[in-house]
């Protein structure tokens, strides 16, 4: 009010005082406005942080649940499968147990996977003599490994049985998601070679032979595996992906699939080299060597017309060469690996193998595979040379059946000093 009633002859000092007063009032109003704005932003930021915190808690809870489920699954698999997996400072080394069911009677022998993996490596322009030197070096390395490192512990079993088929436990990996299929890149997209039980793919209705052409609208004709891996790993805990699929009957359909953490689809799975387990019968001649490729192609054409429809002669020939190379490796392993040389020195380092048996029939369950009494006998003979702990598990904690003692333990020479009854 004083500003309005000033006289015309107001002094300079009075005018200056009025100016300062007005400026101060405006400054106070501006500070109040800024303060209100900052308070609103702080409140909004706090709400966002709270939402992020709650989301992280939910994700942690879901991950903890998955880890618990994975642990329970691991324990279930471990109790079901038993184990012969060795761990030393060299890393994890599976002891494969090979079963050649083509031979009569079937032959069994243990093979450290380190040896097998190195032996299966091929080198350009390597002569037979060079390969023999390399195999001798590998054998010496394996001997040193087993003689000098005794930090072995029983875990899950890697078992090779049934006409050279590979059976192994599914790896538990929490770092990526999977839809549970084996894929092969084709010009049209990713062809499904196999679908794992209880996987996201099985739940979505995907089948062997289907071709995934797009994921989230992105074509998979080139670098399909890389694109699919990237897209499925982008998904949140409850998110799904849209797949465009061409069925075996050439029908185009859309499939909604929810990728799962790998822990959820851990299973015992069969891993074959091509159609190895299907084709191996007829591959081996009476002398134990692989037959000529032309003879095998003729046998396939006469016995397996379905394979001839799905694969041309060139593809079959490539498959046969792969199988023959593998047979050669097995043969080298059988000749050079003497089970007794890898015998551990004391009980704390012995491998363990769980064998589920019953009185009702003379068979046992090992790594999900049903073996007859004779097959168990051959297996026990093979691993018995190493020294081993055989856990004979009988329903209702009953004593070991007589057929196990008479048809397996006594003929094999295996001494059952501490039966688990």
Q: How many individual β-strands?
A: 18
Rounded to the nearest angstrom, the distance between the terminal CA atoms is: 106 Å
How much helical structure, as a percent, in the residues? Answer: 40-55%
Largest sheet: 6 strands, antiparallel
CATH architecture call of the domain at 177-265: Roll
Elements, N to C (H/E): HEEEHHEEEEEHEEHEEEEHHHHEEEHEH
Average the pLDDT over all residues and give the rounded result: 63
C-alpha geometry: elongated
Under CATH, the topology of the domain at 177-265 is which? Pdz3 Domain
CATH level 4 superfamily of the domain at 177-265: PDZ domain
Beta-strand proportion: 15-25%
Estimated radius of gyration: 34 Å
CATH class of the domain at 177-265: Mainly Beta
Describe the fold and architecture:
This protein is an alpha+beta fold and 421 residues long. Among the domains are: 1-81; 177-265, PDZ domain (Pdz3 Domain, Roll); 344-412, Nucleotidyltransferase, domain 5 (2-Layer Sandwich). The protein has 11 helices and 18 strands. A hairpin with a 5-residue loop joins strand 15 and strand 16 (363-366). The longest helix is centred in the N-terminal third of the chain and has 70 residues, at 12-81. The chain is elongated. The model is unreliable at 1-5, 77-103, 106-111, 148-173, 263-282, 306-310, 337-351 and 415-421 (pLDDT under 50). Residues 169-221 form the PDZ domain. Keywords: Coiled coil, Membrane, Transmembrane, Transmembrane helix. Pfam families: PDZ_2. Residues 42-76 form a coiled coil.
